[in-house]
Amino acid sequence: MAAGSIAGAGAAVADDAIQHQGGAVATLDGLQTYHQAVLHTNGKDQEILAGLFEMTVDGGGQLQTYCIDIHNPTQEQAKYLETPWAQTSLNDNANAGKIRWILQNSFPQVNDLAALAKSAELDGTLTDRTAAAGTQVAIWRFSDKADVTASDPAAEQLADWLEKSAENLAEPKASLSLEPSAVSGKPGSRLGPVTVRTDAGEVAVTPPADAVASGIKITDEAGKPVTTATDGAKLYFDVPEDAADGTAALSVQAGMSVPVGRAFASATKSQTQILAGSSESTVSATATATWAKQGAIPAVSVEKNCAKGGVDVTASNKGDAPFTFSLAGFEHTIGAGESRTVTVPVAEDQAYDFTITGPGGFEKNFKGVLDCKTSSAPQEPGTETPSSEPSPASAGGTSGGMQGDLAETGGSGATPMIAGIAIAMMLAGGGAVFFLRKKKTTTGA
């Protein structure tokens, strides 16, 4: 058993092992379509930029998003993951559904600006930039309860109309996910099921990289090998009886427009975004299987739990022997065929990073940032206005005709370091030992 630590969220987090429940993964390109607004906070008026961001999707595609965390700066070229509302600052926001209504009833979903101006009974006309600013201002009033106004009169009227007209809508479904993301069992059987959840008509199913050599097949409920699947399909890992103890992964992928209203959380500490528009984009998800002939056979998954302020570690045991693990100072024993979820407390804005290993080469690394609340307005005098100079804490996106940087869409670029929380973890049973590995992180700007 080794000690692990959770470091301040200012640290950059590599994207090779960041937990993702499936969907789109994208890189922030910058603020592209925007106009001025004024944020009223701490008795002062602060000029900021308000509008649409753009992101490039891994594997192909483009996204347009609005910010839902006004006081939090962006990280340059930050990686973003499609994320359920419950794992973002929208988790306890009673007005989250109104934000989705605004997205569906304003720019860019409504790109006939004359019609939009008529619906909102505006005195003036709208441009792409003022329509984007007015929409962003209305969103901030619900996402951050911000006292913010658009500088352009027509944009301000649009924001008022959107705020007044908004209705609560349900969260859109994920573009693509696999449930659960980890399964286990004995060789000579089909391990699963792993259920496909998607808005795409059909997804491509990719078997493990060494499937031919190992004899592992991905099948449906009837045991027939599959290469495609639809929403609700149940997938299984068919593992040969003579397979050595081990682990494997399957992936599913599709091209589709990501549903408007999906949240996008950063792999680093960068302002949370919400989807306003999507081209045909690549979405994907991965699930793993672990098998062994005897002893404890673990399957482990992790997801953020904003309601409890931590990270849920779920460990199941499909083996024929119990295993015991120590987590955050408590010991847990899981019998054969049982599972248990343990919530590890993690401070807001804190990064976590740990690796869990087990029998047959089983190894999983989990990392991310717990970002469940919108940032508060800076209280220190002189910090109310963000820097106008590009820095690692502020992506420098600009659009033709109007100069500026993303620092002007959020608060101070200084994110305080939060003290590390030591976690001890041991998963043992039938010779399987789980441990945490300490990762060294660095504090960002």
- Please state the overall shape, judged from the principal axes of the Cα atoms: elongated
Taken as a percent bin, the fraction of beta residues is 35-45%
Structural class, by secondary structure, is mainly beta
Instruction: Please give the radius of gyration in angstroms.
Output: 23 Å
Helical percent range? 10-25%
Oligomer: single chain
Write down how many β-strands occur, each being a DSSP E stretch of 2 or more residues: 26
How much is the average pLDDT?
81
Largest sheet descriptor: 6 strands, antiparallel, barrel
List the helices and strands and how they pair.
Layout: E1 3-6, E2 25-41, E3 44-57, E4 62-67, E5 79-83, H1 96-105, H2 113-119, H3 128-143, E6 148-150, H4 153-165, E7 176-179, E8 182-185, E9 190-198, E10 203-206, H5 211-214, E11 217-219, E12 228-229, E13 234-238, E14 246-257, E15 263-266, E16 273-278, E17 280-291, E18 298-305, E19 310-317, E20 323-327, E21 330-334, E22 339-345, E23 350-357, E24 363-370, E25 421-429, E26 432-435
Parallel strand pairs: 8-17
Antiparallel strand pairs: 1-25, 2-3, 2-5, 2-6, 3-4, 4-16, 5-15, 7-9, 9-13, 10-12, 10-14, 11-13, 14-17, 15-16, 18-19, 19-22, 20-21, 20-25, 23-24, 25-26
Helix pairs in contact: 1-3, 3-4
Structural overview:
The protein is built from 5 helices and 26 strands. Residues 1-16 and 381-445 have low confidence and may be disordered. The chain is mostly beta strands and 445 residues long. The protein has a 6-stranded antiparallel beta barrel with strand order 2-3-4-16-15-5. The two termini are 33 Å apart.
